[in-house]
Write a structure and sequence with these properties.
Distance between the termini: 36 Å
Helix content: over 70%
Low-confidence stretches: none
Number of helices: 3
Amino acid sequence: MVRRFDRVERITLLLFKLAYRQNRLDVAEHFLRALETLESHPEVPGSARCRCAVMEAYGELIRRH
């Protein structure tokens, strides 16, 4: 089951980056919230990896401003 969440996290991060780079901030915000939700879900194994995805998303925001 870990792979399933890893893949969801990875794809969500890619979609966040795509939306953000295309200046679709409304859409990017939804993907960022999805990453935060994945991080906070107690049943998700490997939540440390998700935290990395959230941090990478925040890093994208910082680099662009």
